[in-house]
Design goal:
The protein has 190 residues and is an alpha/beta fold. The protein has one domain: Rossmann fold. It is built from six helices and six strands. It has a six-stranded parallel sheet with strand order 1-6-5-2-3-4. The model has no long low-confidence stretch (mean pLDDT 91).
């Protein structure tokens, strides 16, 4: 029983510490410097995964609502698809009416922690609204706060599919990694 409690503790602490800062994209958000849209899978033909498309749409909605001044598309620029997550993300946002000069690509956002650190250090943001799925939003906000950003989290409508179930389960392990990254001061790439 103790092992189960210890395994769930990082996830629970992150959720408790961020619960007032995370909500559906349709909610009210305090204005921020940027929407930080986190990368997700791009298929081999360059098609974005449903999660990636939803994240970009969330960032676009924030931009169009005036909640942010720009959008940082952060992901793996050298992903296995060969297209690069930020490049695909930019194309989606531009097709949704966001001007090119309102979008910044971060090809070195290789994980959530790196994306947060780079939003502050490489792109000069001090406040962000992280655009990602609900199961990921608390951890992303928590990591951005630890990286020195004032962060909120916006998520698209929740859809029940295999990726959502897997994502929720993955968060238990990812929360442990998040704590380790912060405590150990993980070196950032790029």
């Amino acid at each position: 029983m103790l092992i189960v409690v210890l395994a769930l503790l990082p996830w629970l602490l992150i959720r408790v510490q961020t619960w007032t800062d995370v909500g559906p994209v349709a909610g009210d958000f305090t204005h921020a410097d940027a929407a930080l849209v986190l990368g997700a899978r791009v298929y081999e033909d360059g098609t974005p995964s449903p999660f990636l498309r939803e994240r970009v749409a969330t960032g676009v909605r924030l931009y169009k609502a005036g909640a942010v001044d720009r959008i940082i598309m952060s992901g793996d620029g050298n992903d296995s698809s060969g297209f690069g997550e930020p490049t695909v993300m930019r194309a989606i946002a531009e097709s949704m009416g966001v001007p090119a000069d309102a979008i910044v690509e971060d090809p070195l956002g290789l994980d959530t922690y790196a994306s947060c650190v780079r939003a502050k250090d490489a792109f000069g943001a001090s406040t962000v609204i992280v655009a990602t799925q609900e199961f990921h939003a608390s951890r992303a906000v928590w990591l951005c706060n630890r990286a020195g950003l004032s962060a909120q989290g916006a998520f698209p409508p929740i859809t029940l599919r295999k990726g959502t179930v897997v994502g929720n389960g993955r968060e238990l392990v990812a929360a442990v990694k998040a704590w380790r990254d912060v405590v150990m001061g993980s070196e950032q790439q790029g």
